Amino acid sequence: MGFILQSLGKTVLASLALLVLLIVVLGQNFANAYLALLTSTHVICGVMWIGLLWYFNFVQIPSMPKIPAEQKPAISKVIAPTALFWFRYGALATVISGLWLMFAMGYSHTAFLLTDPGSRFIGIGMWMGLIMAFNVWLIIWPNQKKALGIVATEASEQAKAGRIAMLTSRVNTMLSIPMLVCMVAQRFGGL
């Protein structure tokens, strides 16, 4: 078991193998298994995305002033770029899997347009998620690249970019709770 758990890749593969085993043993039909896997993929990607959003806002940003200057490069040069990679691609995978799921469930049109009360909550959650993904890719990431020195910029521009990224991240944090509640509420017929 230690052989598997010492590698993140092997741990994830073991998790997927366990899932396949459960599907086979429990004898799920293909349609149910497909929708369950698609929904689970969307939720897992969302956990990665929103988990990192909350990590940045509840842990990293408040902790940075407390970190001694000589230790800050470990955050800004190693941890933050890696976390931002998974943050960006978690957002992208969440959007793609969510759109795929809506098409598979057959309510993409009414959810996009917010025309059917039966899919209105998922539509509102979807629009909030799209706004948040837009913020990640077109505001937070370009400004984080400047703030972290990934792209060359002047010190005054670096500080300004860091503030823009932080404030936009806070907007996403603010949207994340109602977005998540709308997504969950859809399963129960709305609020």
Commentary on this structure:
The protein contains seven helices and no strands. The chain is mainly alpha-helical.
* Proportion in helices: over 70%
What is the total tally of β strands? 0
- Global morphology: flat
Main sheet characteristics = none
Q: SSE layout and pairings?
A:
Blueprint: H1 2-5, H2 8-26, H3 30-63, H4 72-105, H5 108-113, H6 120-147, H7 155-187
Helix pairs in contact: 3-4, 3-7, 4-6, 6-7
List keywords for this structure.
0% strand; mainly alpha; 191 residues
Give a quick summary of the entry.
The chain is mainly α.
